[in-house]
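Internal ticket - ligand job 66, zinc ion:
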Amino acid sequence: MLSMSQQQFENFTASSLYCEKCKAAMPVRERLLLVLPDREVFDYLCTGCGSSVGQREVTAGDRLTA
Ligand SMILES: [Zn+2]
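stdout (structure tokens):
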């Protein structure tokens, strides 16, 4: 896991996540789940089985501190 580069981390949103159902890192589809006044919540769906494998929140504050 330590060999994972930061570049891969930056590609997180468009690459793959570990799916417990498929028991493998699967390509994911990003879906806008929720829009709030101060943030947006994205849901990541496994393209193999369609289950949710993760979520991400994007806020204006995160963008400033990132
Ligand atoms: Zn899956």
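Auto-summary: Residues 6-65 form a domain with the N-terminal domain of TfIIb fold (CATH 2.20.25). The pocket of zinc ion is lined by residues 19, 21-22, 26, 46, 48-49, 51 (CB under 6 Å).
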